[in-house]
Task: structure prediction
Amino acid sequence: MAELRRDDRLVVATHNAGKVREFADLLKPYGIAAASAAELGLPEPEETGTTFAENAKLKAVAAAEGAGLPALADDSGLAVDILNGLPGIFSARWAGSDKDFDRAMRNVEEELHHHGAISPDDRQAQFVCALCLAWPNGETTEVYGEVAGTLIWPPRGANGFGYDPMFMPEGHQRTFGEMSAADKHGGVGAGSLSHRARAFALFAAQCLSQID
Result:
């Protein structure tokens, strides 16, 4: 399995500024020079997959081919139990073309009310993250992470991005929107908290293990 080494260049295959910031924080200790797909002028491929893993792979492969560099892509979202896993892979689409996640959170809340989901037991959800590292030669490595929690209303906190202000992870009394980046990620490894940090810990173990 090919591994990334210190000072290697890596494409973070996203146009989402929030994801770019989170990956920059996670990659910084490893000395990896990362550039986003947006910075490199790479187009966003159509997400035609039916799972988080499929969409992560097609984005990573497209970026690796387009840039001629290894590319890391994630596909992540909110899966609500009582909504049969929705919005799921459509999490970003619920925010509309203008990426209005205040609207997306209202949409989720309206669906919860439609299903009579008032008590915390009826408002259980998971944040899910599938990561894929693709190389220009077609080799890929895929990992998966998730974190369980409860959806609260009204949203709280201005940190993070997406659905973070309405998601309170299991065992905590603050939403991701109220946590600092350090608290949200909880470190990389056994103490990882966020879905992205948990997936990244697996990625680091498999693809960054030789970096010192």
